[in-house]
Design brief:
- By secondary structure, the chain is mostly helical.
- It has a single domain, classed as Alpha Horseshoe (Serine Threonine Protein Phosphatase 5, Tetratricopeptide repeat), CATH 1.25.40.
- It contains six helices and no strands.
- The protein starts with 6 loop residues before the first helix and ends with a helix.
Length: about 110
């Protein structure tokens, strides 16, 4: 029976697709990873950025929010959330995320 690749291996494969210029395929691959591993915050963070690049703004917001929920003390998740919200036209949410990022940054 073949061994299932780890979530990290699957993430790396998606990164390779992205680096080769196949961003839509990379997003599809990473979306499959978060279905199998819904608590994989790094994958949600990457999806937030990659979906933003594909102008899939609501998907970007959803993944950014999940990354923030999974890693609340991580100040780097909130700027991504701010960008995703701004691009989706959610200005108040963008401002809130950036304020949260500043607060977390001051604590570190």
């Amino acid at each position: 029976m073949p061994v299932m690749p780890s979530r990290e291996d699957r993430y790396e494969s998606a990164e390779q697709l992205k680096n080769a210029g196949n961003l839509a395929e990379a997003v599809a691959a990473l979306e499959a990873v978060v279905i199998d591993f819904p608590d994989f915050s790094l994958a949600h963070s990457a999806l937030a950025a990659w979906c933003t690049r594909l102008e899939r703004h609501e998907d970007a917001v959803r993944h950014a929010l999940k990354a923030c929920q999974l890693e609340p003390p991580d100040p780097f998740s909130y700027p991504a959330m701010g960008v995703a919200c701004m691009r989706a036209g959610r200005i108040t949410e963008a401002e809130d995320a950036l304020a949260k990022s500043r607060l977390l940054g001051e604590k570190h």
